[in-house]
Amino acid sequence: MKNTVANEEIAAPYAQALMTVAKSNNLTEAFGNDARGLVTLLSESKELRNFFDNPFASIESKKVVINRVLGDDTNAFFRNFLMLLVDRKRIYLLDGICQQYLTLLRELNQTVLAEVISAVPLSEAQEQAVKERVISMTQAREVELSKKVDSELIGGVIIKVGSQVIDASLRGQLRRLSLRLTSS
């Protein structure tokens, strides 16, 4: 199923419950690492997403796949939570639950998520400069970067933090220049 507003509303209490379990067992960061891993895996594997979305796949087969995917190093509380999602036929919400959990974790840690789109991969120094710029804009304690490469930018970067967008790309500068020239 596609993520809809209804799915997000259903996923929210599960993410809250996962955060409650994580806080009570001092495992917020460990759960965050597991959630990040699952989000990455689900974004890279359409087959896995389709399998979890498939209502005809048996509960037992979904549990077997989860155990294989997680490996032995995953926390027992997190594993049990995923098994509960399978039992309640809510595993199709896994991506949304993990995304919302990560949002709650960022709020807890006073961290903001900044999406950075660049023409080429950023160097460590450039990433640090972006983080410093975002911290000065938002007064956050830390910045988590979501990096994407888009060769159509020609050069520069676009930084998105919440609803704020800083377009320092060459494509954006050319577009603004074109608008100024056509409006003159």
Folded structure, characterized:
By secondary structure, the protein is α+β, with helices and mostly antiparallel strands. It folds into two domains: 5-107, N-terminal domain of the delta subunit of the F1F0-ATP synthase (Peroxidase, domain 1); 111-183, no CATH class. The chain has eight helices and four strands, in the order ααααααβαβββα. A four-stranded mixed β-sheet has the order 2-1-3-4. A hairpin with a 2-residue loop joins β3 and β4 (164-169). It is elongated, with a radius of gyration of 20 Å. The mean pLDDT is 89.
Radius of gyration: 20 Å
User: How much strand content do the residues show?
Assistant: 15-25%
- The assigned structural class equals alpha+beta
Question: Which descriptor suits the 3D outline?
Answer: elongated
Taken together, the total number of domains comes to 2
Number of helices: 8
Mean pLDDT across all residues, rounded?
Answer: 89
Helix content: 55-70%
Intertermini distance: 49 Å
CATH topology of the largest domain: Peroxidase, domain 1
CATH class of the largest domain: Mainly Alpha
Order of helices and strands: HHHHHHEHEEEH
Q: Compute the number of strand runs.
A: 4
CATH superfamily of the largest domain: N-terminal domain of the delta subunit of the F1F0-ATP synthase
